Amino acid sequence: MTSATAFERLNDKQREAARFGSGPLLILAGAGTGKTNTLAHRVAHLVLEGAAPERILLLTFSRRAALEMTRRAQRIVGEVVKNVRLPWSGTFHSVANRLIRRNASRVGLDASFSVLDRGDAADLMDVVRHDLGLSKTEKRFPRKDTCLAIYSHRVNTRDALAGTLGMFPWCAEWEGELNRLFRNYVERKLENQALDYDDLLLYWHAMMADERLAAEIGGAFDHILVDEYQDTNLLQAEILRGLRPGGEGVTVVGDDAQAIYSFRAATVENIRNFSSAYKASVVTLEDNYRSTQPILDAANALTGKGLVSSKGKGDKPRYVTVADDAAQAGYVVSQVLQHREEGIALKRQAVLFRSSHHSDVLELELVRRNIPYVKYGGLKFLEAAHVKDLLAVLRWADNPKNRLAAWRALQLLPGVGPATAGHSFARFELQGWKALHDLDAALEALMHSLAAPETPWAGQVGRVREWFEPHLERIYEEAQVRAGDLLQLERISINFSTREEFLSELALDPPAATGDFSGAPLLDEDYLVLSTVHSAKGQEWDAVYVLNVADGSFPSEFATGRAELIEEERRLLYVAMTRAKSSLDLMAPVKYYVTQQSRMGDRHVYGARSRFITGAVMACLEQIAWSDASTAGERAGRGTHSVDVAAKLRGMW
Questions:
Q1: b/e per residue 220-234 (b: at least 16 CB within 10 A)
Q2: Which residues pair with 349 in a beta bridge?
Q3: What is the pLDDT at residue 355?
Q4: 473: part of which helix (H) or strand (E)?
């Protein structure tokens, strides 16, 4: 395939976007319209037009997305330009990390600063919380994860703390204490020369506020492309403005109807205001290559979009009324098995839900019916305790000021608790690595070697793993399974040229598998996919079942009372519906059982039809009232003899 042929395979709108000139451009790409393909062709077009790949900045929301676009662009231009590499492609946070390290001395940091992942940041927040006496208050003080969420939201929205606490009303009474906690948290990070996720954007934003530094960094790039722009927050939008005040060479891609991450401080206003803010041209992609037209008709009625299917006709989506969540599970299982008999493998079907616990009853039914499944949203690889232990040793070697890493590494030794670890670190600050000799001579020798600048990176993870394995067996159950994770970590390390790059990339874009709660290996070649809607974004399946499409779930009860959150919930349902290629079932239970009662309790409430299922949307759906086979059989077995109860009641009086 020649590069010319590659562009001919695009539709007219995709080609217009890919071959657009150098002015600011907004590509509004509806669900399933080939967004990734279009952006990859735009990168290829820029390279073919003479743009130097190292002067293209490509910002995505995952490392995998950046690699995929680079791979596609390479394939397109391969006959003309060999070995296209985009060294400045990656997530906002990974690019920020590289830029800050390049300019560390100019922003008051050591070049060896550590990057805290979410777990480490929450642990440090907890240490500060405890030191300030906030863990022993008479009233319930917010836990570490809540504190970190409030801090992150406040930083990324650039709102006052009081405004952020509107999202966390149960914490509003602690505003003064939280302000003190966050001030001390910042001080502790500076002492440790450690940055969390939010600091990476804050430092980049601060560099963009300096006119000379902003011009220097922005001048390194001729073209800036941003994927999933609807998921950016205010800080990221202002960083982009700092890089390119006039918008020259800027292309952003996204879909305002798929903006569903306000809980991460993303704002849909960034993409809605881009055209006016930069006087940008707009190319709208509406030709959908994923779903049949009846599915798109329902999605269009929900949001006012105008998606057109390239696949043509198909069955109407179904709006299925069932008695309760048990009947909902019964319907889904029966349809899953029916589709499987029709040739649609289990892994080409997905059950989506608003909140993780909504699938509880379904999971029990799947186990009972021996249907294998995988649920997305479990423990991540780097959240596993044994993996964090090994990384703590490397992080301490990389940044000796990293008190949190030292504290964790020291407690791996037998007989060392928090107090001893604290005293040992204090001695280390005075004496260096030799202070560890009395605790563990092997650890002292290891840290001496790892911290030496002349020690090559190759083999460092293996050396730490070998030192750690005896402690692994002493500390954890299932040590053999966990040892496999550490071997996997060692294999991953081979792909990185330096320790700093390895630690930073793992913190910013972690892999998503772990043996921490590993049981028997999954031996089935096929499995049903269960996922929250948020985790399903960007995915697609032949058949999709959406659970609990009723007020309280769509929209969530926590969104009521705020118009902007209700609209985000509408977009969330749109994302769920547009994951389906050919079959879509929207489930609507009538009864919802009240929590906090015995397992056999029957207290329940009746669910109201979702406010999003308007007359226009319902006109695009096939309405079904379903009851399970046992109930249907019960009815079929009834006789025709009748009793005139009304006459008996009248006769009583």
A1: ebbbbbbbbbbbbbb
A2: 543
A3: 83
A4: helix 460-475
User: How many Cβ atoms from other residues are within 10 Å of residue 450's Cβ?
Assistant: 19
- How far is the C-alpha of 235 from the C-alpha of 246, rounded, in Å? 18
CB-based contact 201:156 (threshold 8 Å): yes
At residue 453, φ and ψ (nearest 5 deg) are -60, -30
Q: Residue 574: CA atoms inside 13 Å, Cβ hemisphere, count?
A: 25
What angle (nearest 5°) sits at the alpha carbon of residue 572, between those of residues 566 and 577? 130
Distance CA 24, CA 240 (A): 12
Degrees to nearest 5, angle at CA 165 with 507 and 608:
95
Token output for 629: 């086979």
Name residue, tokens 């970190």. 148
| CA dihedral sign of residues 91, 97, 98, 99 | positive
Closest CA to 90 of 115, 70, 104: 70
Determine which helix (DSSP H) or strand (DSSP E) holds 130, and give its type and residue range: helix 118-131
Coil/strand/helix, residue 415: coil
Hunting for tokens 């092997």 — which residue is that? 442
Give CA angle at 499 (495, 505), nearest 5°.
65
Contact status, residue 77 vs residue 84, Cβ threshold 8 Å: yes
Of the candidates 168, 192, 183, 189, the one whose C-alpha atom is nearest the C-alpha of residue 134 is 183
Cα-flanking dihedrals φ and ψ of residue 373, to 5°? -150, 160
DSSP, collapsed to helix, strand or coil, labels residue 419 as helix
The stretch 302-307 carries a mean pLDDT of 94
Q: Decide: 114 and 405 in contact? Cβ < 8 Å.
A: yes
553 beta partners: 556
Distance CA 120, CA 122 (A): 5
| Cα torsion angle, 549, 554, 558, 563, sign | negative
Q: What is the DSSP letter of 455?
A: S
What global pTM score does this model have?
0.80
Reduced to 3 states (helix: H, G, I; strand: E, B; else coil), residue 309 is strand
List phi, psi (to 5°) of 194: -130, 140
Reply yes or no on whether the pLDDT at 597 is more than 50.
no
CB atoms within 10 A of CB 217: 20
| Residue 431 structure tokens | 């004496």
**Among candidate residues 477, 508, 607, the one with its CA nearest the CA of residue 554:** 607
Could you read off the pLDDT of 184-212 as tens digits, one per residue?
999 999 998 999 989 999 999 999 999 99
Cβ atoms < 10 Å from Cβ of 639? 5
What are the two backbone dihedrals, phi and then psi, of residue 273, each rounded to the nearest 5 degrees?
Answer: -95, -5
